[in-house]
Specification:
The complex is a heterodimer of chains A (998) and B (187). Chain A contains 32 helices and 39 strands. With 998 residues, chain A is of the alpha/beta class. Chain A folds into 5 domains: 101-152; 162-221 and 396-550, Rossmann fold (3-Layer(aba) Sandwich); 229-391, Dimethylsulfoxide Reductase, domain 2 (3-Layer(aba) Sandwich), CATH 3.40.228.10; 579-706, Barwin-like endoglucanases (Beta Barrel), CATH 2.40.40.20; 727-737 and 758-984, 2-Layer Sandwich (Alpha-Beta Plaits). In chain A, strand 6 and strand 7 form a beta hairpin. Chain B has helices at residues 2-30, 49-55, 60-63, 78-85, 93-104, 124-129, 134-138, 155-163; one strand spanning 110-111. The chains are: A alpha/beta (998), B mainly alpha (187). The interface between A and B is large, with 50 and 55 residues. Strand 2 of chain A pairs antiparallel with strand 1 of chain B.
């Protein structure tokens, strides 16, 4: 931290402002990093062709001149503007062409489902947001739900049923499957039904019906990436496979043992955790997040106090904590220091937990072994924690269960198999054995969205509806959410439940005509209150409208902890020490277990921490990398219990020494987008372990070769200036005394006039967790193309909104700040002055507007933008998009061609729409009525948008916060975005504070 | 030899450039103006605005009902036509064709008369809601047997009115100027 940067404007930094760094190169100030800061574009970004340039010969020149002439003559004869306009033949009553309709539905993902609002235009879904009627989610949802609208229009979707590779009709396919089931039933041979997990009570009822009709059916619900430890731990602790979810509204102390509850998947937890962490004035106390983890997670980056520890030691640490808090039956454990935590911190942590009592909670990561989960449950029961909720959940099949099924396959026991939304040929660790055994089943049926590795082995391949085309319901125990189709089926597909119904009918069990009727019948019986005044139709209509039904009288009680397993688990936690690395296998932040591998939006969304796109490099600690002599992108050979993989590495500051981390879900062999991206790490899962996702004794050796990783964080550097501010509570108290309102720097340009509105934004870095939901929402709203790994490597990504991730402090355990960076809509915008054709200029409501049709692509504006937020269409990223891909476009936003500059518009289409509506109603615009896509998607309400001219608007008030600052204020560009400094509540005084005191 | 060399090095490229220049210039000035006034294409059903809006005095918004609610005024659905033509004039060839299209559930592709480039996001709502008559831009449609483009769809025409809208607005309107910034229409 002592190296000094050339031209560092340190004098301009406020008191206590530390040096932040974004990459290791930047921290070390290597010559490459300096060059990168100096150059506007990465090497290669300026080549307009992907082929190496050749010298233009005279002959080629003349050929081109001729071709241009011919082309010019042809273009002059086009028929543009002579188009047709086709009205509806019968217009549905609720559709007005040009006006969006919103439908409440649910996005199912394994055991969870998210209540969402689907925006449709002329009958096609184009954008997804959270459902504001849902009492917990309050209009927020998971980033993958936002992105999943793209999968609906995936050109790789299976379009019609296939039997043995040839197109077939549904009737034929169903008859084949039915005959197999009937025969199995007659001969009492088992049938394997392998599905993903579900949260749908009606689907469970339907499968129970199928089980009753075919008693030999063996149903396994399998989620390959989650690990089996949590389930085993919950059964040992509570006697049931409960799902533990945080409830952090009142929590004062939160201890995460490798639990990544802030990764964006749980918007309720994020909102609750962040609710009280955004004071405008200095405060005495705040909730405190302790994180003990091996690899760096998003939760770790948001920790107040974080310690990197080996994942295998976490269970022992948890038991040691329990012992300190007074638990019996626990053997003597190594000292905390030996387990990786300094004594001072240990004492403070125990004090914190004791003081908070029922307002403290311990959360355990899904990849952790069962013993860690038992220790966590024990800790929570000692604390009497009220800050978590145990939800009843479906029993999931473990890898051991699948291995048993594999043995039965080999023994030729199964008469038939149905795969429904699972991909064992890809995700089962012993792929080759699985494939051989699977072929021994006579009738193999597969139903899913996009043909995968498993479908290739099936005789019956059946296309399933996307969830936006299907009916369903989901529950978390207290709230029932409804899933409704928002578009008619695009292809000759069926929803899986309808296939099951057909089978049931064929087996002689009388059932309603379709799943919609089945669901309604079940709801009428089970959900619709007997004494309810509303008729069932009214009730169902209202459920369709709201998307949620509160289940009366259902509330989750804290389950009783069973102490029986404690001593055995504590002994297991001691473990046997192993040599080598510990490898943590996590579901990919973007592609999860590989099911979203074909979504280019998700593949291109940078990992929130490593900022790597399109792949899963093996992350290892900087210290280990130095020992091995590897740098970012160097290939290593990873060996775990005999399985070998060649993999590129990425260096991760803050990762525990001796820990490796790898994302699952990559290395797919099918799918136009997914194929060949990254490496398949499922082969490394341990079968029969209580922690299949945690492997001990891994070996890493340097291998030959190097791969240029498409990592975005080294792009668009801002000349080494410090752009984020981050305080501890004590530092904030000191800073607040010196805080002055941002003073306007003098300018030579005429003052901008804002007669009616001045749109502006406040981004609270303290509340931002870095989940990147905003980036995805922006991509979906603004028709932003994905460009692919080669283009990313050249620095040509198109995201209008990026999240800059800054490290501060020591490499082995840095503090992290996430900063969403987008067009700052400066009043004295440097980009506007240099545009030779006035394509970018200022609007009277404070927007830095961009007229694409005027832009000639000089790129002067991008060069002059101090925030590096302008994006240039170096290549034609959109013209080859035809239906179905083009159906996802938002018709309110221009699709930009090659050669055009673009950037954040503050979602001007939404501003215009609200303005026009308000004008039509003859009323002023209400505060909060205009919500850009990013602000609407942010689960922690870190992004607030509004009118800075209205002194009572939320954004005006927040902009006056004592944590407020503008990025690069000293340049006098007068940005319209105010950032609020990050605030952390560390338990121990940092070196920085120590230095400040001296 | 020198002569040929010169011809190849200088005259030929210059000639090529000259030919290109001529083609582009001639092409530019003779190209059909796709946004100019006077465009009156033949429609698949010979619908007469003169009869419906003029003689029968039907309100424009009866068919173009989106105009107050949506960016697009909207072309009426075939069902809207059939609202009357189930019983009216059922024996004429045009209505027979219309009935056939409706019963078959086919699409009816009208020729677009008023068209704008893709990067223009014109919104009918603020114009109609502030009292601008349809005829201001679309001409005296109630007198047209075949709809003709009466105003060139060029930005100059938009801006002329936005800078001085009083002739288009009702007399008591308080509006003196309309939006002139890029993002009002381009985004």
């Amino acid at each position: 931290m002592t190296k000094h940067i050339h031209h560092d404007p340190v004098d301009l930094l406020p008191i206590g402002s530390p040096r932040h760094w974004r990459s290791l190169d930047e921290r070390e100030e290597t010559p490459e990093a300096r060059q990168a800061a100096h150059d506007e574009f990465k090497p290669g970004a300026m080549n307009f062709s992907d082929r190496p340039s050749t010298n233009l010969s005279r002959r080629t020149f003349l050929t081109l001149v001729g071709a241009t002439t011919a082309l010019a003559a042809t273009v002059a004869c086009d028929k543009k503007g002579r188009s047709t306009v086709v009205p509806y033949t019968k217009r549905p009553l609720e559709v007005v062409p040009g006006v969006a309709n919103y439908y409440a539905s649910s996005f199912p993902e394994g055991r969870r489902a998210y209540s969402v609002l689907v925006k449709t235009r002329e009958g096609r879904p184009i954008h997804i947001t959270g459902n504001d009627e849902h009492p917990g989610l309050k209009g927020k949802t998971s980033p993958r739900a936002l992105a999943d609208v793209l999968r609906l229009y995936d050109p790789d979707r299976l379009r019609a049923p296939k039997i043995n590779g040839r197109p077939a009709s549904w009737v034929e396919a169903e008859q084949t499957l039915l005959a197999a089931l009937a025969a199995a039933k007659r001969e009492a041979k088992p049938v394997l039904l392998l599905t993903g997990a579900t949260s749908s009570p009606t689907r469970k009822a339907l499968l129970a019906d199928l089980q009753a009709a075919v008693p030999t059916l063996r149903h396994l619900a399998w989620e390959p990436a989650l690990g089996d430890g949590a389930q085993e731990g919950a059964v040992a602790s509570y006697g049931a496979p409960l799902e533990i979810r945080p409830r952090l509204e009142q929590a004062k102390v939160i201890l995460s043992l490798g639990a990544d509850f802030l990764n964006g998947d749980d918007p309720e937890a994020i909102a609750a955790f962040m609710a009280k962490r955004r004071p405008a004035e200095p405060v005495e106390s705040m909730n405190r997040l302790w994180v003990l983890e091996g690899a760096m997670s998003l939760t770790g980056t948001n920790a107040d106090q974080r310690f990197p520890v080996l994942p295998s030691r976490i269970a022992a640490l948890a038991f040691a904590l329990a012992k300190e808090l007074g638990a019996a039956q626990i053997p003597t454990l190594p000292t905390p220091k030996k387990l990786g935590i300094p004594a001072e911190a240990w004492t403070k942590l125990i004090h914190d937990l004791k003081t908070a009592g029922r307002d403290a909670v311990v959360l355990c990561g899904e990849a952790m072994p069962a013993e860690a989960h038992v220790a966590t449950a024990l800790l929570n029961s000692i604390l009497g924690s009220q800050a978590f909720e145990a939800r009843p959940a479906e029993t999931l099949a473990t890898l051991k269960d699948l291995d048993a099924a594999l043995a039965d396959m080999n023994a030729g026991k199964f008469a038939a198999v149905i795969l429904w939304d699972v991909n064992p040929a890809y995700a089962f660790p012993k792929t080759a054995e699985w494939k051989t055994a699977f072929e021994k089943i006579p009738v193999r049926a597969w139903i899913g969205l996009i043909e995968d590795e498993s479908a290739a082995q099936c005789s019956l391949v059946l296309p399933e509806h996307h969830w936006l085309e299907a009916w369903g319901d989901h529950t978390d125990g207290t709230i029932l959410t409804l899933q409704q189709p928002t578009i008619g089926a695009l292809y000759d597909s069926k929803q899986g439940e309808d296939l099951v119904l057909t089978l049931l009918k064929g087996l002689g069990v009388a059932k309603p005509a379709d799943y919609h009727a089945y669901l309604q019948a079940r709801w009428q019986k089970e959900v619709h209150g007997k004494g309810s005044l509303a008729s069932f139709d009214q009730f169902f209509q209202s459920a369709l409208h709201d998307g949620v039904v509160k289940l009366e009288g259902k509330s989750s009680a804290t389950p009783a902890f069973k102490t029986a397993a404690v001593s055995e688990m504590a002994v297991r936690a001691l473990g046997t020490p192993t040599d080598g690395f510990e490898l943590l296998l996590r579901p990919g932040t973007q592609v999860h277990d590989g099911r979203y591998g074909n979504s280019s939006w998700l593949q291109e969304l940078p990992d929130p921490i490593t900022k790597a796109t399109w792949g899963n490099p093996l992350s290892l600690s900087v210290a280990d990398a130095q020992t091995l002599g590897v740098k970012d992108g160097d290939m290593v050979e990873l060996e775990v219990a005999g399985t070998k993989l060649r993999h590129p590495v990425i260096l991760q500051p803050g990762q525990a020494k001796g820990t490796l981390a790898l994302s699952l879900g990559y290395g797919r062999k099918t799918g136009g987008v997914a194929r060949g991206v990254g490496f398949n790490a499922f082969s490394l899962l341990a079968i029969g372990s209580s922690a299949p996702n945690l492997r001990l004794g891994a070996r890493v050796t340097k291998a030959r070769g190097h791969m240029d990783l498409p990592v975005t964080q080294s792009h668009h550097r801002l000349e080494g200036r410090d752009l984020v501010r981050s305080f501890s509570l004590a530092e904030f108290a000191k800073e607040a005394k010196h805080h002055h309102e941002a003073h306007e720097h003098p300018t030579l340009y005429p003052e901008q006039q804002f007669p009616d509105h001045k749109w502006g934004m406040v981004i609270d870095l303290s509340a931002c967790i870095g989940c990147s939901a905003c980036s995805l929402a922006c991509q979906s709203e603004n028709n932003i193309p994905s460009v692919g790994p080669d283009q990313i490597a050249k620095g040509r990504e198109m995201h209008w909104m990026r999240i800059d991730r800054y490290y501060e402090g020591e490499i082995d355990n840095p503090k992290v700040v996430h900063q969403p960076m987008l067009c700052q809509h400066c009043d004295a915008a440097p980009c506007e002055n240099v545009c030779p054709v006035n394509a970018t200029n200022h609007s009277p409501d404070g927007l830095n507007q961009m007229a694409y049709n005027r832009c000639v692509g000089t790129r002067y504006c991008a060069n002059n933008c101090p925030y590096k937020v302008r994006r240039f269409n170096f290549l034609e990223f959109t013209a080859d998009k035809v239906e179905p891909e083009s159906l996802v476009y938002n018709p309110e936003v221009t699709v930009r061609p090659r050669g055009v500059m673009e950037k954040c518009t503050f979602c001007v289409q939404r501003i215009q729409d609200v303005k026009i509506r308000a004008k039509g109603d003859n009323r002023p615009i209400k505060d909060g009525e205009v919500q850009p896509a990013c602000a609407a998607a942010c689960p922690s309400h870190a992004i607030v948008f509004g009118d800075l001219k209205d002194p009572n608007s939320e954004v005006s008030k927040l902009a006056k916060s004592k944590r407020g600052f503008k990025v690069l204020e000293e340049l006098g560009a007068r940005p319209a975005i105010t950032y609020l400094a990050d605030l952390k509540n560390p338990a121990l005084a940092s070196n920085r504070e120590g230095a400040a005191h001296e | 030899m020198h002569l040929f060399d010169r011809a190849f090095r200088l005259v030929l490229p210059l000639g090529a450039v000259a030919v290109l220049g001529t083609v582009l210039t001639v092409g530019w000035f003779t190209q059909p103006d796709r946004y100019a006034k006077g465009f009156a294409p033949q429609q698949p059903i010979p619908f007469s605005h003169q009869l419906h809006a003029g003689t029968l005095k039907m309100s424009c918004t009866y068919c173009h009902s989106g105009v107050t609610k949506s960016r697009a005024a909207g072309i009426p659905s075939v069902e809207t036509c059939m609202g009357c033509h189930k019983v009216t004039k059922t024996d004429t060839p045009a209505i027979k064709e219309l009935t056939r299209i409706f019963n078959a559930g086919e699409a009816l592709p009208w020729k677009r008369v008023h068209t704008l480039p893709d990067h223009v996001f014109f919104d009918h709502r603020p114009h109609v809601n502030s009292g601008v008559a349809c005829q201001t831009c679309h001409g005296e449609v109630q007198n047209m047997k075949v709809v003709t483009r009466e105003m060139g769809m060029r930005m100059g025409n938009c801006l002329a009115c936005h800078r001085d809208p009083h002739t288009a607005l009702p007399k008591d309107s308080k509006i003196t100027r309309a939006a002139e910034h890029c993002a009002a229409c381009h985004r």
